[in-house]
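Q: Protein A?
A:
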Amino acid sequence: MKKIFLVFMFLLIVNLLWAEYFSFGFSTPYNQAIYTHEVNLFHSFEDAMKANPENVIALKANASSKNILEIKNFQNLRFLVLDEGFTANSFYLNDRSLNSFFEICNQLPHLEYLAINDAKLIPYIKEPEKLKGLKISKFDRNSFETMIPKFKSLEILIIDDQRITVLSPFVGGITSLRQIELYTESVPVLPELNSLPELLVVRINTGKIKNLPKTFAELKSVRYFNLTGLVDFKAFPSEIFGMESLEELRIELRNADKISDEISKLTHLKSLHLIDCNKLKKIPQSMESLSKFENLSISGSYYRIDATPLLKLKNDFSITLIRCNNYAHFAEQLQNAQNLKEFIVPANILPAHLKKIEQFIPQNKIKKINL
C-alpha cells in the first residue's frame, strides 16, 4: 500500500512539473503544494547555453536554431519539448539531420519526457523504451500503432489533436500507463482502457461522445477522473460508479438532471466538481455516507439545487460555487451545517449577492477566489 502511495505522489509531482511550469497545454489536477522544487523551462538553445548546462532540466528545442546539436551539452535534461518546426517534412531539418538529432537525444542519460508536434517523428526515437512520458500534438495513427508497443516504460501519454475523429485502440494496450490525457473535439468513441492495471489519472476532453465504454466500470485503480464535453449525455454515466478507488471526479453535466444514489459506491471520493450542470436539481441523498468527502464544486447551475444532503456529511467540507444563479439559496440551506469549513465564491461576485450570503454564512467562512 505504501509503495502504491509513493508512486501516486511521484506522478502528481511529475504532472505538476510538466503542466504548470512547462505550459504544455494542460493543467495539474492536484494542489501545487505537492510541488517540491521549481524547474525553469528554457525556451531556446541560446537561452539554455547562457546558463550552467548542469542546471538545464527542461528545454524547448527550436528546429530553426543553428545550435541544435548543442543539446548534447545538457546531460541532466529530463523534459524536452520540440517546437512546431520539428516535423517529418521539416523545412529546417532533413532526414539525416533528424536522425542525428534524435541519436544525440538518445545519449542524454536522464531524458524521460518528450513532447512532439508531429507523430510521424515517433519512428526517429532511437530507444523508446527509455521514455516515461510522451505528448503528441498532431496524431498519425500509422506511426503511433507501429511504434507505441516499443514504449515499454511509458507512464504518461497525452494526445492533443482537435482534428482526429478516431482514437487508436492501441492506446488501451500500453499496460505501463499510469496517466492518460486525450483532447479532441471530434472523437465519438473512446478507447477501452480496462487493460491498464496501473492507471491512476484519466483526463478526457471531447465534445462528441454519447456514452462511456461499459468497460470504464472496470477502472478499479483510477484515482483522478476528469471528463468534459459530455453535451449529449442525458444522465450521469453509471460506469463511473465502478471506479472504486476514485478520489477526485471532475465531470461536465450539461443535460443530466440528477446523479444516482449509486455515487455512494465511491467510498474514497474526496472531491466532486460538477461543471456546467445546467439542469441538476438535487445532490444525491447517499452522499451523506461518503466518509472521506471534503469538497464540492458546482459551476453553471441555473436551478435551486437541493443541497441538504451535505448537512449530514461527517467530515469538514468546502463548497465552491461558480456562475450560479442562486448563491443565497445554497447559503440558506447550509447555514446550520456544523462541518462547513469554507463557502467559496468568485472574487468578482456582485456585492448584492455577497450580502445575501452573509445573512446565512459567517464572514470568516466565506472565501473569495480569482478565476
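Q: Protein B?
A:
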Amino acid sequence: MIYCFEAAGRVTSGVCSTCGSACSSCSHACNNACNSIQCTACCKSLTNVSSRPLGCFVILAFLLNVPAGILAVLSALDEEVQRCRAAPVLAWCYGALMLSITNAAFAFYMQHKLASAIESGTQRGARDIFRHAGTIVLYDFVFCFYIMLFAAGFVFCFLGVGWWQTCHIHSWEAVWAALLLLFFAFGTMGFTCCWGFAVGCWGGLEALGLSSSLARIFFGVREQPVVFAAPVQPAPYRMAAPGANTSQALRPGY
C-alpha cells in the first residue's frame, strides 16, 4: 500500500507540475502578446474616451453601431439578398453599413467638439457646458447635416424591414441590423433628454452652492480649484513723541 500511495503521489505531483508549467507558459505568452500590441495604451485610450464629456453617448454608439455594421455586411453577403429583385435589400444593407459608420463617427466628433470648447474656456460650470452645446447645435454645419441624416435613417430602418419581408429572406441579419440602428436612435433621443435634465440639475446645485461632484464626474469635467485671496494685514502704527504735531500723531511705520 505504501508503494501504491507513493506512486499515486508521484503521478499527481507530475501532473500538477506539468499543469503549472503550462499555465506559466500561457501567462508568459499572454504578457508578451499584450506588450506587443500595447494593451495598456489601448485601455488608456478607452478610459480617456469614457471620462470625457458625452462618454456614455460614445460608448452607446460603439456598442450598437459596430454590431449593426457587421450584421449589414453579413446580410449583403447572403445569396438570397443578392438574388432578390423585388426590393432593394442589397442596397439597404450597404446603406445600413454607411449609417452605422456615420453614427459612430458623429459620436466621436460631437465629443471632441464639446470637449475642445469646454477646455478652451476658463469656466466649466453647467451654464458654460449648456452654452457650448447650444452653440454647436445652432452653428455647427456637421451637426445640422447629421440631424437630417438621423431622421432619414430612422425611416430607412423601417423600410429595410419591409423590403426584407417582401423578398422572403430566411436570414435575419438585416432585421437585427435595423433593430440595432433603431435602438441607437431611441437611445440617442433618450440620452439627449437625460443629458439636458442633468445639466439643469447641475445648474441648480451650483446656484444653491451645493456640491456637484457626481455631476462633474458624469459630464467628464474636472473641478477647478478655488483660490482664496490672502487677508490683508493692516500696517502697524506708532505713537508720535510728546509735543509733536497732532496731525502726525499717528503714522504708519515699522
